[in-house]
Design goal:
There is one protein chain. With about 280 residues, the protein is mainly beta. The chain has a single domain (about 30-275), classed as Neuraminidase, CATH 2.120.10. About 10% of the residues lie in helices and about 50% in strands. Strand 2 and strand 3 (about 50-55) form a beta hairpin. It is globular and about 45 Å long.
């Protein structure tokens, strides 16, 4: 399906399923830099600075943004390639860039880049350690269409592990995301599915996970049309609420400012707009 037709389907699904009872709760804070046109992933560095990246096929660069979306500084990750960077997360000491996009389910080794936060704060060029992994359940590259569930665009930091939430591409659509944990220590891993989350039955264009964040035992999941919040205490997800957006754009990154406010970033598109830093409020 070509890109224009894909977005036409998105619009039809959006207005057929969500035009009633829309919540006007998404605000544009500012326009993103031109060279961050395929923004994918968002994180907070400090009270005045956000971190973002471009999607696959772009440079191996980290963008530091002001809270109005303007460019503060750009950082090169040395000796790395942006195969399919999809999300970012952090802990107290490190930033993790998830090079885990696998739309065609053909990649047999995925990687997460681990970068010292102090280097990001002080340098224009940084180096990354690497966490390689593959999914134990994937034995064919690509698998049959009913088993195409090894793409992922969402990663969060929880304790000493990174949680990956997959973005299913199965036919027929299952609406399920598989949850995988991988160590934060550099190395090569084979990871097994830990559990599943049911996101929705409306298909890839509405219910596919495009980003996630984790704060205070809450897991925040982003799709193109809504934010879904799960209580994640003891790693047992329980859906708490959903926040439906009145603006349909290609939303690709989210980070929680607190439990009632979230920064969101969307990719620029010539028809449907985007290319902005947004804020959502409960």
């Amino acid at each position: 399906m070509n890109l224009a037709l894909k977005y036409f389907v998105v619009v039809l699904l959006f207005f057929s399923n969500f035009s009633i009872g829309q919540n006007h709760n998404l605000f544009i804070l500012g326009t993103l830099p031109e060279d961050l046109s395929e923004a994918s992933g968002l994180e907070i560095l400090n009270d005045t600075t956000l971190i973002s990246i471009n999607d696959g096929g772009n440079g191996a660069e980290i963008f530091l943004l002001n809270l109005n979306g303007s460019l503060q500084r750009k950082i090169t990750v040395l000796n790395e390639k942006n195969n399919d960077w999809e999300d970012v997360t952090r802990d107290e000491n490190f930033l993790y860039i998830a090079d885990i996009g696998n739309n065609n389910n053909t990649r047999n080794r995925l990687v997460i880049l681990k970068i010292n936060l102090n280097d990001i704060k002080t340098k224009d060029e940084v180096r990354a350690e690497k966490i390689y992994f593959k999914y134990k359940e994937q034995t064919a590259f690509p698998p049959e269409k009913e088993n195409k569930k090894f793409d992922a665009e969402a990663i969060v930091s929880i304790g000493d592990s990174l949680l990956i939430l997959t973005k299913t591409n199965t036919i027929p659509w299952t609406g399920k995301s598989q949850l995988y944990y991988v160590s934060k220590l550099p190395g090569i891993y084979t990871i097994s599915v830990s559990s599943e989350l049911f996101i929705g039955s409306n298909g890839w264009y509405v219910d596919a996970i495009t980003a996630a964040d984790f704060l205070n035992e809450k897991l925040y999941i982003l799709t193109y049309n809504r934010l879904i919040v799960f209580n994640f205490a003891n790693k047992r997800p329980k859906r708490v609420f959903e926040l439906k957006f009145d603006q349909l754009t290609q939303k690709e990154g989210i980070v929680a400012k607190n439990e009632k406010e979230w920064y969101i970033i969307d990719e620029r598109h010539r028809v449907f707009g985007g290319g902005n830093l947004l804020k959502a409020k409960k």
